[in-house]
Amino acid sequence: MSAPRSRWSAAARTPVGACAGLLLLAVVVLAVVAPFLWGDRASVVDTSALQQGPSEAHPLGTDNLGRDILSRVLVATRLSLLLAVTATFLGVVLGLVLGTAPSVLPRRAGRLVTSVVNIAVAFPGLLLALFFAVVFGVGATGAVLAIGLAMAPAFARLTQTLSASVAGQDFVAAARTVGVGRTRLLVRHILPNIAEPLAVNATIGAGTSLPAFAGLSFLGLGVQAPNYDWGRLLGEGLDRISLTPAPALAPCVAVVVTGLAFNLFGEAAATALGVRTMSRPSLRHRPLPPPAQGTAGHRPDSEGEPVLTVEDLRVAFPGPAGWTTPVRGVSFAIHPGEAVGVVGESGSGKSLTAMAVSRLVDPPAHITARRLEFTGTPLLDTGEKELRLLLGTSLAMVFQDPMSSFNPVMRVGRQLAEIAEHHQQLSRSAAFTRAVDRLRAVHVPAPERRARQYPHEFSGGMRQRAMIGAGLMGDPRLIIADEPTTALDVTVQRQVLRLLTDVRAERDTAILLINHDITVVAQTCDRVLVMYAGRVVEDLPAAELFTGARHPYTRALLAAVPDLGTDRDSPLAVIPGRPPEPGQIPEGCAFAPRCPHADDRCRGADPEPVTYTAGHRIACWHPVRDVSALAEETTTGGTA
After folding, report:
1. Same domain, 245 and 305
2. Which of 241-250, 346-355, 487-496, 521-530 is least confident?
3. 82, 333, 576, 622: least buried by Cβ within 10 Å?
């Protein structure tokens, strides 16, 4: 049994859910069989029994034409339930359209739809229902339209909120990278992941629309004679409530009980479906994998054209106090077969730089660069369609969280096959065959069986391997790996890093590896970029990192890494202070408030990166010149 079905079953097994479910089932059965069992009795006119009170023959009495009220209440179940469900369906469908429209329409049209929804949500639902009932006229059809339109704004707002929460997931970013269009992205990746909360709220909405519809019929705006529903029967019974309350109480109880059944079952389902916890392994004291054989220290030939060229990249966001620039003036290049690592503290701009290169940073963010080229194609000047075709086949993304890297409601093989269908125009079966082959290439055991499983059936390491396999569905020239081993244990971490190394060696694929662990980067990459406050402060060969790093920030990062020789009786070395917020970067060198070598020149002017030695660039007014002191300090784990 699939996970969603088992969770719904869990909702039905709770005491409240079971009672509400049984009650709903009874109401549905009654709606089906009541017209056949009591339809004639409910419609037969008996002039000899007009407006009688409760009796053995008529437990709830008769109406002004002598018809049995109990039979009429039972028969009215079908029309009452049908109209309420129809109105709910209309509200849900219209709410889905309005809620997802901003994701599909152009920006201005999407904002217009959002504004209309926000204005409609501000009005009470009952007021909207009465307004639309007057607009569409008296009758069941007008009442259905009125209640459906009144429900739509709230459901649209819910859809917008849920869609926004899913749109930020890694698997959506991956789908955008491979070129999936907006409509397909919405239908295949976003809506299936918000279907459960939408279904729960639709169930609760049905319980709300039932009394609303009864209210319109009670006011004479809903069902008209000769048809009748619970609301119309309530209105008729209310005229005689001073003589006998039974004709009014019976339809009232029917409305309340059925509405409560819908609401209680929806609440039980929300409780069962909403409690989702995901345990994550501890990230402290992770042992380091051994150096990859023949990786660190080996630099490929850099004479050819680079795969990726970045010059003066800037990413800015608007804010109340003006524009904030968390990435400011980043420049680097990656050549075929080269592995470049990016290190730095959280908030230094590593991931945002990678997202900007992949064109996954959406407005209102503003991306500028003097030069931003991938395989010779300018990324900022190329059309969206051509750009997605290029990035979808030649660039692969491996995200930090392997669980969020895949769409949880699609089978893994189907997700990989979608890439081949979209970019290589393969048939469904051929694309699935290629997906199995790619899973086999990244050493996923039993790939045929695994391809038919959901992501939650994979371990963390297998999901990360499958994510790399997804990148290999095309012919990637560059793999951007954003913290690909953070949530994995040391054994799986070693396997993932070796897999990236194998892919690099077999295909001459360039790798941009983002990682907090500077030692892992040193052992895996050819070159290291050290970022701080949105800038690259040092760019040097990985082989020279421990002995030749000269920026005080790089030295502090190295000193903060414990090793077997670290004195366990002494506190761990830390970098004093905190990195500056993107909107509060100080004048001059951003690291100056934390740097022991800072002077007035550092606090007054921000140094530009300059070439220190061949292959080594540094942005610092006072680079360290005593290499032996650096090596001794790094080995002993001293503070920066």
Report:
1. no
2. 487-496
3. 576
What value, to the nearest 5°, has the Cα angle with vertex 503 and ends 498 and 509? Answer: 125
- 269 and 359 fall within a common domain: no
Are residues 264 and 303 located together in one domain of the fold?
no
Residue 485 belongs to a domain with what CATH number?
Answer: 3.40.50.300
pLDDT in the model for residue 298: 42
- DSSP-assigned states of every residue in 238-306: HTTTTT-SHHHHHHHHHHHHHHHHHHHHHHHHHHHHH---------SSPPPPPPPTTTTT-----SS--
The rounded Cα 197 to chain-centroid distance in angstroms is 14
Residue 31's pLDDT band, with cuts at 50, 70 and 90, is very high
CATH of the domain at 97: 1.10.3720.10
Please tell me the total number of residues recorded for the chain in this structure.
Answer: 640
Give kind and range of the element (H or E) at residue 535: strand 535-541
Q: Which conformational region is residue 446 in: left (phi greater than 0), alpha (psi within -120 to 50 degrees), or beta?
A: left
Task: Note whether 359 and 415 are same-domain residues.
Answer: yes
- Tell me: the pLDDT tens digits for 296-308? 444 444 456 899 9
Q: Is-contact 342 349, C-beta < 8 A? A: no
> Same domain, yes or no, for 265 and 397?
no
The number of folded domains in the chain is 2
User: How many angstroms separate the CA atoms of 468 and 486, rounded?
Assistant: 15
Is 311 a domain residue?
Answer: yes
Is 139 buried (19+), middle (13-18) or exposed (0-12) by CB count in 10 A?
middle
For residues 453 and 378, state if they share a domain: yes
Looking at the chain, the whole-number percentage of residues with pLDDT higher than 70 is: 88
CB 94 within 8 A of CB 153: no
For residues 479 and 394, give the distance between their C-alpha atoms in angstroms, rounded to a whole number. Answer: 9
Parent domain of 94: 16-47+60-273
C-alpha to C-alpha distance for 70 and 450, rounded to whole angstroms: 58
